[in-house]
């Protein structure tokens, strides 16, 4: 709570499946030990890329605005949509640009590329990119979600199964973290559509 | 090297080990209040270590004897051990004197122990609630040696939230049912808003018949009863 990265609290999890990705997050907005209200922490970038931001929420908002400026500029210049892999590098570069006065954020990227190949990535505060092929955790509840995620995730899950794994891991983790909770949301991204589902969380 | 610093006196130095955290119940909400003919003690059940929830099922209302309850905030071990100690002494008192120890007496006895250990890192913040020959009584005591009588107390990280609900509806002439409901509601709002408070809600009524544990309920059951949630998305 004295750490600026833990001030607002968050729980976030992205999983990779067979031609699908999910990204789930809690909804709480804390200041220190007080639950102030609910906010959305996962932001749309394109139809097939979602950006989850944990850390200091004011930096999350600023960073999202700046990253969207770059994404839209590229769209206008090149007349094509940015791909998730490309977007991951963009985010890492934008964070490293502020190497000596960083944004206090840890972003999580989930998307499908033009061949519907799933992509998930995250970086630390200064833009060290990691691109695994299973799942990623982020936020104050990161360590608490990691265990459940490890046991629920399997290779080549279909969209519905992947949602279930994400939701279960997220809920289990949130219930052990005092700084996250107050409801959560899971986005399931498939080649056809994006599905948004809200989860029934404890409210303490 | 500074020669002016005296070495710690034997048995008077601090036993705190660097990097350890023994104050399990620091994030908490306990409340107690006194009405005509009875008193109420209530608490949540969450225990945190840093941001991690260590347990959601801690009993923070400790029975000192059949007529006196102490609430727990601070170090769980300190509160449990000394409450039990005061309890055994109150039973001996009863055998020796053929009358029950008063709430004032028990709290004074407890407070005297805490004063003896002052400066040696005991961590206790407790409300002593009970019923004796003079009626319902209530004291707040802590490890600084403070001991205050009062009608309403709350302590812990969520106490501000609990008090704002409690103060709104408290009257000395509440019925037992009304008082229990008020205690439940006060603790509930603390569980909702304070990240250090959560789990179950426990409420104990103490009257001329003794202590009666009337509420032991998960706070989530009460969400829809108390919170008129204006959120635009479904939470079921």
TrEMBL record, chain A:
Main subcellular localisation: nucleus
Superkingdom classification of source: Eukaryota
InterPro entries named in the record: Ntn_hydrolases_N, Proteasome_beta_3, Proteasome_sua/b, Proteasome_suB-type
Cellular component annotations (GO), alphabetically ordered: proteasome complex
Location of this chain's protein in the cell: Nucleus
Keywords per UniProt: Cytoplasm, Nucleus, Proteasome
SUPFAM superfamilies hit by this protein: N-terminal nucleophile aminohydrolases (Ntn hydrolases)
Gene3D superfamilies, A to Z: Glutamine Phosphoribosylpyrophosphate, subunit 1, domain 1
Name of the protein in question: Proteasome subunit beta type-3
Native source species: Blattamonas nauphoetae
UniProtKB/TrEMBL annotation, chain B:
Pfam families referenced in this protein's UniProt entry, alphabetically: Proteasome (PF00227)
Segments forming a coiled coil: none
Cellular localization per UniProt: Cytoplasm; Nucleus
Catalytic activity annotation: Cleavage of peptide bonds with very broad specificity
Segments crossing the lipid bilayer: none
UniProt xrefs under SUPFAM superfamilies: N-terminal nucleophile aminohydrolases (Ntn hydrolases)
Keyword tags: Cytoplasm, Hydrolase, Nucleus, Protease, Proteasome, Threonine protease, Zymogen
GO cellular component terms, semicolon-separated: proteasome complex
Molecular function as annotated in GO: hydrolase activity
The keyword Hydrolase appears for this protein: yes
Family indicated by similarity: Belongs to the peptidase T1B family.
Assembly information from the UniProt record: Component of the proteasome complex.
UniProt function note: Component of the proteasome, a multicatalytic proteinase complex which is characterized by its ability to cleave peptides with Arg, Phe, Tyr, Leu, and Glu adjacent to the leaving group at neutral or slightly basic pH. The proteasome has an ATP-dependent proteolytic activity.
Protein's name in the database: Proteasome subunit beta
Organism: Blattamonas nauphoetae
